Amino acid sequence: MLHSGPVPDVRAMPEIREPFSQTHTTLLKLQARQCRFIVSEDQSKAIFCGSETQEGSSWCPWHRRLVYTKPLVGRAMPGAASRAKLG
């Protein structure tokens, strides 16, 4: 079994409802505080989720969970030590 850390307990995560398709919108109609997650299969005609976002986020809670991963505590990214010496 390949896995490099603890498996998150999904029971501890709050339930988030999937966004409604009625909020889907195009780039030109996208407004502030609307989810920018592309939900269409055809990338030439990008359709965005359009659901309400929380302040400072580009995604609704549903899509934020798909695109954001918490950084691992205590693990430095490769090359971080050498970059720190340069600064």
Automatic annotation (TrEMBL):
InterPro entries in the record: GcrA
Protein name according to UniProt: GcrA cell cycle regulator
